[in-house]
Amino acid sequence: MCYDIKTKVEAALKRARHYGNEEAVQMLIEKFRPFLEDEWFHVSGFQHPKLLIYTGDNSEMPLVASWGLIPFWVKNEQQQLDIWNKTINARGENIFEKPSFRTSARSKRCLVYIDGFFEHHHFAGSTYPYYIQRKDGEPITLGGLWDEWTNKETGEVVNSFTIVTTKANSLLKKIHNNPKLKESRMPLILDERQEEIWLKGTANDAKKLIVPAADGYLKAHTVRKLRGKNSVGNSPEAIEEFIYPELHSVLDLN
């Protein structure tokens, strides 16, 4: 799954910088600053943060969207609240059939740039958080779905998104071992060539991309607790390596 991430505006602007001039990027930063945190060292999808996403409508410049997809057909605020926490992630294997996602899967796919993400390992009755990032330290591009919903009670137009997940690669199989789940999962990670296909390709093109990230692409280390009274919250400590002797003596990620 992918419920917890680290991201900053600079990482999210990677694509805009690649395609646009610096003046346009600076204008974007000023435009979005009132709506965004400059940096999330740790944020959960259940907080429904506003992040930058890229869509096929304008693949070079981002828009602000809330994490947790609200389908266009949601009728009112109560239905929106009921569905919001259920659409943080979307299983890639059924996004073209599930009512919450199928319209977006066909025509509203998006990219989400992050620095890294967190997953929990279960061991001896406890959970241990890992921070996962690219080995080269570059931002990770996640495949997502988005939609535009109009709140009929207020007239507000809300952009929202979900992160697509797929089966885990060898690294995430070792880490993501929740006994309540049938299998290990990971977010859909795209390389630069795949980004364009995900945004603008056909449904069949997109389906072919829903596979685990290549082994050797990511690295991981344990961090301090992300939840509960001992949580470090949204601080740099959230991504600093923290050793749990009882775990590291039995789990080898190499």
From TrEMBL:
Any one GO BP annotation for this protein: proteolysis
Keyword Flavoprotein assigned: no
Pfam families documented for this protein: SRAP (PF02586)
Keyword Protease tagged: yes
Enzyme Commission number: 3.4.-.-
SUPFAM superfamilies listed in its UniProt record: BB1717-like
Domain of life: Bacteria
Molecular functions (GO terms): lyase activity; peptidase activity; single-stranded DNA binding
Keywords: Covalent protein-DNA linkage, DNA damage, DNA-binding, Hydrolase, Lyase, Protease
Family classification: Belongs to the SOS response-associated peptidase family.
Name of this chain's protein: Abasic site processing protein
Species, as recorded: Draconibacterium aestuarii
Organism lineage: Bacteria, Pseudomonadati, Bacteroidota, Bacteroidia, Marinilabiliales
